[in-house]
Amino acid sequence: MASLNKVILIGNLTRDPELRYTPSGLAIAKFGLAVNDKFKQGDEWKEKVNFIDIVVWGKQGENCSEYLAKGRSVCVDGRLQYSTWETEEGQKRSKIEVVAEKVVFLGGKGGQDDSGKAEGRGANSGPAEASQNDDVPF
């Protein structure tokens, strides 16, 4: 049976990335992404916002933490991951999040002009793209 787990999203960060490290020293960054859906209902266009949790590992996560901020536009290429856990009160919880394999920083928000260049810091002030390291286990 064939299967494919691939997600490509373009949206804006809903919060600054939160960077942590595993006990072995591997970086992990987490942030929220807002992605808008537009649809027509009768003669009127409507818009719905989807809020998605993003997880970024390794050097790519460190780059996201350093260069991204709330409101910044990004393109995330990754896969869905389903997680379950139990709270201290014994309640079962679950969620689906996107594990990013590639994050491309886009312009237009967070101190960026439309060309993607950081204002006042020149074109080479940060990476335009953070890509997955080979040493990150999945």
Describe the structure.
The chain has 138 residues and is mainly beta. The protein has one domain: OB fold (Dihydrolipoamide Acetyltransferase, E2P) (Beta Barrel). It is built from one helix and seven strands. Strands 1-3-4-6-5 form a five-stranded mixed beta barrel. β2 and β3 form a beta hairpin. The longest helix is centred in the middle third of the chain and has 10 residues. The chain is globular, with a radius of gyration of 17 Å. The C terminus is likely disordered.
Write the layout of secondary structure elements.
Blueprint: E1 7-13, E2 18-21, E3 27-41, E4 44-57, H1 58-67, E5 73-86, E6 92-105, E7 129-131
Parallel strand pairs: 4-6
Antiparallel strand pairs: 1-3, 1-5, 2-3, 3-4, 5-6, 6-7
Short description:
The protein is mostly beta strands. The chain has one helix spanning 58-67; strands at 7-13, 18-21, 27-41, 44-57, 73-86, 92-105, 129-131.
